[in-house]
Design goal:
Elements (H helix, E strand, L loop, with lengths): L1 H23 L10 H9 L3 H23 L7 H31 L2 H37 L5 H25 L1 H8 L4 H11 L12 H6 L1
Helix pairs in contact: 1-4, 3-4, 3-5, 3-6, 5-6, 5-8
């Protein structure tokens, strides 16, 4: 119950930040995903798949803080504090969610786990769909406020840059998080592990270059 209360507080906090930023941003920005529709899809899956996705999101949010916020000396102090305290609480939540995932995994037989792996792959695909839609919307917003003349080729290139950045942050960074990989793949048989790797393989181009795109996603 304490963790749920903290998560609700996180949501309220980020809504406040969203409202603060919207007041100063040029009009026209849109969020393409409907939160209630997303919640219905997620909650329609098994507890195993939901917990695995939750851990995935918690891990990429922690990676985001360590890679983008913590070392950013020029970042607004308020922005830095928000993500610092969010990171601290998420670090605690991850421990509890890992325990819950292990307990849930112990309840499953092989066929049930195999079905849950399929649900997790579908959820990751849905997350990628959200990222794709937001990349298109944000590219259009960027072009509009930058005053760029209509140019379909340039628009597609900008959309590609947004999509690569979003996939790297919201999908690849979570999948490559060592603790998440260790926990997830230790519960899978070889065939299930291959299914997940194959599902994520098309995103290998978005891996940061120092990690090595093909090898990191296939490992």
């Amino acid at each position: 119950m304490r963790m749920t209360d903290e998560e609700l507080r996180h949501q309220a906090l980020f809504r406040r930040l969203d409202a603060m930023m919207e007041a100063d941003m040029p009009p026209g920005h849109v969020m393409t995903a409907n939160p209630n529709a997303v919640a219905r899809v997620v909650l329609g899956c098994s507890s195993w798949a939901v917990l695995a996705l939750t851990l995935f999101v918690e891990r990429f949010s922690q990676v985001h803080y360590r890679a983008s916020v913590e070392p950013g000396e020029a970042i607004c102090p308020l922005w830095r504090d928000v993500f610092l305290f969010h990171w601290r609480e998420e670090s605690q939540h991850t421990i509890l969610d890992e325990m819950g995932f292990i307990r849930e995994d112990a309840r499953l037989d092989a066929p049930a786990r195999d079905a849950a792996v399929g649900e997790l792959i579908a959820l990751l695909g849905a997350l990628d769909g959200i990222v794709q839609g937001q990349a298109v919307a944000d590219a259009a917003y960027f072009c509009a406020i930058a005053g760029m003349p209509p140019d379909a080729l340039r628009r597609r290139r900008i959309e590609g840059l947004f999509l690569t950045a979003y996939r790297r942050r919201y999908l690849v960074s979570g999948f490559l998080a060592p603790r998440f990989r260790k926990l997830l793949f230790s519960r899978l048989d070889e065939a299930q592990a291959i299914r997940i790797r194959n599902a994520m393989a098309p995103l290998g181009y978005a891996v940061p270059r120092p990690l090595g795109a093909a090898g990191a996603m296939a490992a």
